[in-house]
């Protein structure tokens, strides 16, 4: 069985290298694709008929809390799959739901939800990317990576260990 792994641009280069080693040490035939940018991933598959589809048809997205480059990448993925990007003039039906896409690792401000007069659901960019790469819609609530972080300071992966007693000192989490 062949499997292809896509290592997200959100991983550091060191993390990508470690994951690549783990993947390549596994059994079976594996391919690992590490794009320089998400645009590269889209451009590689641009000629593929499987890139364009209707995966997000009927869904409207609001991209929140991303830099301009990442926001543009997410919008491109959504539009390629016939999704819509929210704008204030968009007309909604009573049963419609707005998907607010935010980062898993950045603090999410829930007050943004009050900005909209329709039902909303908050998801992460990982949901959009995984659905796109796997060509299927995943259950929002099934995986924690699809739900934004609610920690006060977000997640940055750094922590310090108190060497005196070999326990993690909770006050040193960053």
Automatic annotation (TrEMBL):
Residues 51-145 form the BRCT domain. It comes from the Eukaryota. InterPro entries: BRCT_dom, BRCT_dom_sf. This is BRCT domain-containing protein. It comes from Anaeromyces robustus.
């Amino acid at each position: 069985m062949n499997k292809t792994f896509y290592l997200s641009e959100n991983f550091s280069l060191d993390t990508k290298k470690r994951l690549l080693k783990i993947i390549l040490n596994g059994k079976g035939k594996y391919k690992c694709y590490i794009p320089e940018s998400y645009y590269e991933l889209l451009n590689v598959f641009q000629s593929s008929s499987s890139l364009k589809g209707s995966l997000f048809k009927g869904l409207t997205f609001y991209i929140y809390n991303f830099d301009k480059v990442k926001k543009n990448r997410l919008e491109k993925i959504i539009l390629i799959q016939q999704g819509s990007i929210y704008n204030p003039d968009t007309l909604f039906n009573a049963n419609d739901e707005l998907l607010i896409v935010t980062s898993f690792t950045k603090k999410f401000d829930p007050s943004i939800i009050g900005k909209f007069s329709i039902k909303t659901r908050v998801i992460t960019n990982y949901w959009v990317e995984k659905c796109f790469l796997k060509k299927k819609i995943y259950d929002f609530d099934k995986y924690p990576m699809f739900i934004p972080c609610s920690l006060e300071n977000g997640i940055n992966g750094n922590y310090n260990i108190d060497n005196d007693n070999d326990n993690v000192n909770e006050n040193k989490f960053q």
